[in-house]
Write a structure and sequence with these properties.
Elements (H helix, E strand, L loop, with lengths): L1 H9 L5 H12 L6 H23 L6 H11 L2 H5 L3 H11 L15 H18 L7 H21 L3 H16 L2 E2 L2 E5 L3 H37 L5 H25 L1
Antiparallel strand pairs: 1-2
Helix pairs in contact: 1-3, 2-3, 3-6, 4-6, 4-7, 6-8, 7-8, 8-10, 9-10, 10-11
């Protein structure tokens, strides 16, 4: 179904009324019903499919739409109830948002505070402390955390530092002595699994980030050196570099 919807969206066969209907489902979200969580999760996932192609072409979202997704898809109730499908869908949608949407955000403004809140909520999902020592919940948490980490690296210029703090915090928590025996350190399988999962996902994103910087520097060097004979040559060179970058990202994330 997702493949069919994606093809229809790419072909321009889904009109704006459908998008408006889906945005209406998300904005009218009621946190008190589990059925509503399922509906909104599906709506956000469909919006992601509809806009994925357009986002790749430079489409930007209104701040109202971004705030609607964050306030409902990453709501306190969604996190505390561990509604993993909606947390995962929200992380996937936020990966479509251009980082420039948050350039020079003044944290004293409503937009800036909402942005900070978005980052904090993503970090809460990534930490996964609400799963405690439950292995079943931890298994369900994996995919939500993966999408949240990807979104964080897309939205925040210092995501590597944030993830370093998360890993450090988790390590300290894991290394704390047992309450009943101060000389003994114990750690559940669930906590250990979350710890190493976060390390692995962070490593993948850092690899992608490093290669992206490398490709950008190569592109800048070619432009500065005037290696192309004309504008068409520049365009072809840039397209080739962009394709190389997209392929690398896709391969790295698939391996994750």
């Amino acid at each position: 179904i997702e493949e069919i919807i994606s093809k229809l969206a790419i072909a321009g066969l889904i009109d704006e009324e459908v998008s408006a209907l889906l945005w209406g489902v998300v904005s009218d979200f009621d946190n008190d019903s589990s059925n509503n969580f399922n509906q909104v999760s599906c709506a956000i996932r469909l919006l992601t499919l509809l806009y994925r192609e357009e986002a790749g072409k430079g489409k930007s979202f209104s701040w109202g739409h971004i705030e609607t997704i964050v306030s409902n898809g990453l709501s306190n109730k969604a996190i505390s109830n561990m509604e993993f499908p909606i947390l995962k869908a929200t992380g996937q949608f936020l990966q479509l948002v251009k980082p420039t949407e948050f350039d020079l955000v003044d944290t004293s403004t409503l937009k800036g505070k909402a942005y900070e809140d978005c980052i904090e909520r993503l970090v809460t999902v990534i930490m996964g402390e609400f799963c405690a020592d439950n292995e079943y919940l931890t298994k369900k948490w994996f995919s939500s955390a993966e999408e949240a980490i990807k979104a964080l690296f897309k939205l925040h210029s210092c995501a590597d530092r944030i993830m370093a703090k998360c890993i450090s915090s988790l390590y300290i928590a894991m290394s704390s002595p047992n309450d009943n025996n101060a000389s003994r350190i114990t750690c559940s399988t669930a906590k250990m699994a979350r710890f190493f999962f976060i390390i692995g996902q962070s490593a993948i994103q850092l690899l992608v980030m490093a290669e992206s910087y490398n490709l950008q520097s190569r592109k800048a060097a070619k432009i500065a050196a005037g290696s192309s004979d004309d504008a068409m040559g520049d365009a072809e060179t840039n397209a080739a570099i962009d394709l190389e970058h997209d392929t690398l990202m896709s391969n790295a994330l698939d391996q994750g």
